[in-house]
Amino acid sequence: MKSRLERFRQLLADAGVDAVVISQPENRRYLSGFTGSAGYLLVGPDFAVLATDFRYTEQAQQEAPDFEIWRIDGSLVPALRDLTRRRDVRRLGFEAHAVTYQTYREWSRYLRGRGVRLVPLRGLVEQLRARKDEEEIGRIRKAAEITDRALAAVLETLKYGMTERELAWQVERIMRELGADGLSFTPIVATGPNAARPHHRPSDRRLQPGDIILFDIGAGFDGYQSDLTRTFIFGRPEGKFLEVWRVVAEANEAARQAARPGVPAAEVDAAAREVIKAAGYGENFGHGVGHGVGLVVHEAPRLGPRSEDTLAAGMVFTIEPGIYLPGWGGVRTEDLVVLHDHEVEVISQAPKFPVLEV
Ligand code: ZN
Ligand code: ZN
User: Fold this and answer.
1) Are 162 and 178 in contact (CB under 8 A)?
2) What is the DSSP letter of 315?
3) Once rounded to an integer, what is the mean pLDDT over residues 275-297?
4) Which of 111, 150, 184, 245 is in Cβ range 3.0-4.6 Å of 218 for a Cys bridge?
5) Which residues does 100 contact at the CB level (< 8 Å), separation at least 6?
């Protein structure tokens, strides 16, 4: 935690601010260790304050020993008053993506009178969060392992006639039983033509012979998330399914080969996209090839055609090309990977073979 705080402080001068208010929950947790759901960090070159309310003060003292704990009553204004009295703060950064307009107005009205300027910042902590340390990778591995095991267990329970909603509930229940502290997102279970929708919401559609079935699921462990997609088919697959499935597998492999430290994330996306385009399905792959995963299931880096991120060792992200054909169904294969100095390690261990017997 201390080294995270130090690295963060080094960014302040470049950002042109004397201090920063952190209000984004995962950023607050990342820098301080505090897991409570309300509060602000006030960080400057030689101070670190965690302001939170009565419900969390004891927890904050235990979890964030590097921070001075101030008790507030919802509004941050009294803490801003104390801070600006004690410290010479002229330019105070805030997270533009995590402060409501109403809160911004409240702070700026107070600070304007004291000659303090609020400076909007974006992605300062997120930039640090993109590269994981060993401890974080360990938690992500555990989250991914629970996810892999949950998928295997759900496949054991499959029967014709089960609905997508029943299957989604099985995923949820089993993940909890395996020790997940939450779900990374509501499980996506899409059968038959519903698999053409990348983010289908589980419905009452019943599983039928010959159906495609797509699971996109993730468990949380100790605050860290995971993300896994596998697509299966029941019984003897039609030729089209195997063709589409193979193209997606090749695209997944191409993206994995392209991912190296120093490579623009957009190039990894392009590697997968080329394979899909060459097979004639360019129009049917409408999302980016991947995204970072950590305290949040969608975080930096972004791996898409317009991404400006560059890959670096320690990044954990997904590789998830897909092909979606309205009226027919879709195939997506998503792995969670960690980038090392010289290679990509695939964290997801769930088998990929797509043909299931029921
Ligand atoms: Zn996913
Ligand atoms: Zn994903």
Assistant:
1) no
2) B
3) 98
4) 184
5) none
Backbone angles phi, psi at 160, to 5 degrees: -60, 145
Res. 35: pLDDT tops 80: yes
pTM score over 0.70 = yes
Report how far ligand 2's centroid is from the alpha carbon of 61 (Å): 35
Sequence-distant (≥ 6) Cβ neighbours of residue 193 within 8 angstroms: 326, 327, 328, 329
Cα of 336 vs centre of ligand 1, distance in Å, is 9
Q: Classify residue 185 by its DSSP letter.
A: S
Alpha-carbon span 254 to 17, nearest angstrom: 42
Structure confidence at residue 74 (pLDDT): 83
Each residue's pLDDT tens digit, 222-236:
999 999 999 999 888
DSSP string, 115-151: T-EEEEE-SHHHHHHTB--HHHHHHHHHHHHHHHHHH
Q: How far is Cα 246 from Cα 276, in angstroms, rounded to an integer?
A: 10
**CA atoms of 298 and 263, how far apart (whole Å):** 20
Residues 6+ apart with CB under 8 A from 288: 269, 302, 303, 304, 305, 307
Q: Cα of 297 to ligand 1 centre, how many Å?
A: 9
Separation CA 313–CA 327 (nearest Å): 41
Ligand at minimal distance from the CA of 298 is 2
